[in-house]
Amino acid sequence: MKRLTLLALIASLTVAAEAQTTSGNNTSWTGQNTEKNYISTGMPILLIAPDAVGSALGDAGVASTPDLYSAHWNNAKFAFIEDEMGVGLTYTPWLRNLKVGDMNLFYLSGFYRINNRSTAALGLTYFTLGDIDNTDEDGVSLQTIHPNEFAIDATYSLMLSDVLSIGASGRFIRSDLTNGAVISQGGEHTETHAANSIAADLGLYYQKPLVEGQMLALGVHISNLGAKLSYSDDDNDKEYLPANLRLGGRYSYTIDNYNKVSALVDVNKLLVPTPPAKGDTEAWNEYKTGSSVAGALKSFGDAPGGMTEEFQELQFSVGAEYWYADMFAVRAGYFYEHENKGGRKYATVGVGLRYNMFAFDLSYLIPTTTISTSPLANTIRIGLTLEMQKAK
To answer: Which is nearest to 329 in space by CA: 338, 320, 337?
Structure first.
């Protein structure tokens, strides 16, 4: 059983969920205007690729082929999905390279086509951190807690034309890292509680055939824009949700009746304020007390290092997919994040199988950083899908 003080738990779980590949030579985020100035958010698990398809494509998916996992990548894609209804479940054993055996991520998604132009969908993200032994500053065991987080979302997607669709999602979020335990530090005691919030997503998706056998798709998606999270009654100690802007495209080429290839690229930008320079009291007060919407708008030009640092906050994903006879898929991709903003760099591979209404997908992550013991190593995702084709 893991033994941690609760204060250390909250800080460490945030870093773990973000899967920052940092080590002793990487200064962790402290709010200082250092070279490595990480952006901290609450419930970062909402940014983790939940499915075995997008995660095999280097976390590229804003314009990928519409499927039942579109709520995470771009909810507008649901309007272009071809099947009548479907349900899928993905399981991810999380941070197994750190010898953590009871931390898991589950993602359940389902959709239903209302008519030829609109689709509704539901999704559930559940993250369990196992059992953790909460101790006081002297190492005395206080209680065993069971931290967990979940989000439930509902989506509606509508075709605006034969080539353009829009999607909107509402999301209820609950993060319970402490089970109501009291944090003791320096003689002070802080009562804690679960943090609840609501958020919204908005997406646009464009898909148009080019010459025969070729397809161009473009997408933009804003996710997790909502109220800040609070784990105590201190109004000045709230966490921003991981609001995110994702945009990108896909090019698909059908070689013949059996072979099809696609190439994808995504660019991500957190819509969260950058921690200000150390000693700037006014900026820090605004950072702590500012609203999520104001923070999202400021996030494009608030980095202490200027535009150089702003560009460092961009994350890039590229992916490629090959299908044979619409039955067997091979996928590969690469994800890049600047070392001053977390330093995650990894390649991904995966396969997919389709037979009648059933599908199986598997992805595997391969860190490419110089760090020898990346917490991301050996990350796998396993997905099972059931989709029913629309009656002719």
So the answer is: 320
Contact 194, 172 (CB under 8 A): no
Contact 117, 158 (CB under 8 A): yes
Handedness of CA 286, 288, 293, 298 (dihedral sign): positive
User: CB of 155 within 8 A of CB of 120?
Assistant: yes
pLDDT of residue 142: 65
Query: 226 has which bridge partners?
Result: 199
Which pLDDT value is given to residue 246?
A: 98
pLDDT at 388: 81
Rg over alpha carbons for the chain, rounded to the nearest Å, is: 21
Question: φ, ψ for residue 312 (rounded to 5)?
Answer: -65, -20
Give whole-number Cα distances, 308 to 20, 305, 336, 365, in Å: 21, 6, 17, 29
Measured distance CA(234)–CA(204) in Å, rounded: 37
> Which has more pLDDT, 316 or 99?
316
User: What's the angle, vertex CA 313, arms to CA 310 and CA 315, rounded to 5?
Assistant: 140
**What CATH number is attached to the domain comprising 295?**
2.40.160.40
Least confident of 63-67, 182-186, 302-306, 337-341: 182-186
Q: How many CB atoms lie within 10 A of CB 372?
A: 8
**Torsion angles phi and psi, residue 43, rounded to 5:** 45, 55
Q: How many CB atoms are located within 10 Å of the residue 158 CB?
A: 17
Q: Hey, how many other C-beta atoms are within 10 angstroms of the C-beta on 258?
A: 11
Cα separation, 41 vs 313, whole angstroms: 14
For strand 380-388 and strand 188-191, is the pairing parallel, antiparallel, or unpaired? unpaired
pTM of the model: 0.87
Q: How many domains are contained in the chain?
A: 1
From the CB of residue 95, how many other CB atoms can be counted at a distance below 10 Å?
Answer: 21
> What are the DSSP calls for 27-88, one per residue?
PPP-SS--S--PPP-S-GGGGS--STTGGGGTS--TTSPP-TTHHHH-GGGGGG--SSEEEE
Whole domain around residue 138: which residue ranges? 2-388
